[in-house]
Amino acid sequence: MAQLFTPFTQRGITLKNRIVISPMCQYSAQDGLSNDWHLVHVGSRAVGGAGLLLLEATAVAPEGRITPDDLGIWHEEHLPGLRRMVEFLKSHGCVPGIQLAHAGRKASHASPWKGGHQLGPDAGGWSTVAPSALAFAPNETPPLALDEAGILRVTEAFRAAARRAVAAGFEVLEIHAAHGYLLHQFLSPLSNHRPDAYGGSFENRARLLLEVVAAIRTEMPLHLPLWVRVSATDWTEGGWTAEDTVRLALLLKENGVDLLDCSTGGNVATAPIPVGPGYQVPFAEQVRRCTGLATGAVGLITAAQQAEHILATGQADVILLGRESLRDPYFPLHAARELGVEVAWPDQYTRAKSRL
Ligand code: FNR
């Protein structure tokens, strides 16, 4: 049996296979509210046979949105739209998951196809917050450094978002601590120059993430898994390293995190990233081997045999698919055929299953 199509159980939740749709911003919301685009987008991937779909980076606070077009979960009014997606995913055997996010200094930008530039308050943007008043790019207005009350507000925003996510029916929660967003900004010495208990040593830089984990865990029933996405390296001298990631993974494991989703980069605009097929998989492998924590592999995984090899060689527990699932929402159904595994197709599509 191909590993890719073996079930994966964590706590009380079972994925029917190891294919996870990676969180991908659609930049198509208004005031954080989801709409028909989001339902059709996630619904297509559920129909396509994924075991779990992680909904895009969903902002825990309005000022934590990357763009004005991000999804949000800072208010009860976001719940009906989220519930609609959850119910559709569940009805097609896809576990509904959500990524909870705060963009910190990378907030308040235009969506990619609107230019991607920083938006000032006069252009529909807002002031951003971060561990230190250091801009991401030289031409950008720097963020305001959070004071301790502000840090507490961030933790409480993640806590309230988790409570809402559980109320909406999500069964896997992922904390976004990667790609140069707020929690990553705290972790990395390149973006965190704080002189207080949240900066300086490794323990201090990891403090906010661990407080967020603790706050979220208190809002989650014990049968639901909690995942964290990190950037396993900043790819830059003096930045966050793979060794830091292993150390962090041990702490996360002790504190109720069930899987580390291993991405990289995003905190240094000019970092030289050696992009190529499966280039981030070694980080998932290292964390899994050194800590025993389950890992997710992501990044330029585009073929069934490649995904199968990663799992069969014990480098990760699940495969996260990003762009390949945008090219082919039916990747899981196609991969099953390629790997010779019998999987159910949606009843409505059964007549297309055989090519004869
Ligand atoms: C992304 N990515 C991303 N990552 C994340 O953690 N949260 C997010 O909301 C998004 N948004 C997003 C939107 C779009 C359109 C793309 C293409 C990517 C990164 C994504 O989840 C994944 O990690 C990378 O795309 C690498 O995997 P692939 O695409 O090579 O399979």
Report what the structure shows.
This protein is an alpha/beta fold and 356 residues long. It has a single domain (3-346), classed as TIM Barrel (Alpha-Beta Barrel). Helices cover 33% and strands 15% of the residues. The chain is built from ten helices and twelve strands. The strands form three sheets. The protein has an eight-stranded parallel β-barrel, surrounded by seven helices. It has a two-stranded antiparallel sheet with strand order 1-2. It has a two-stranded parallel sheet with strand order 6-7. The protein is globular. The two termini are 25 Å apart. Ligand FNR is lined by residues 22-25, 56-57, 99, 176, 178-179, 229, 263, 298-301, 321-324.
Keywords:
356 residues; alpha/beta; TIM Barrel; 8-stranded parallel barrel; two-stranded antiparallel sheet; 33% helix; globular; binds ligand FNR
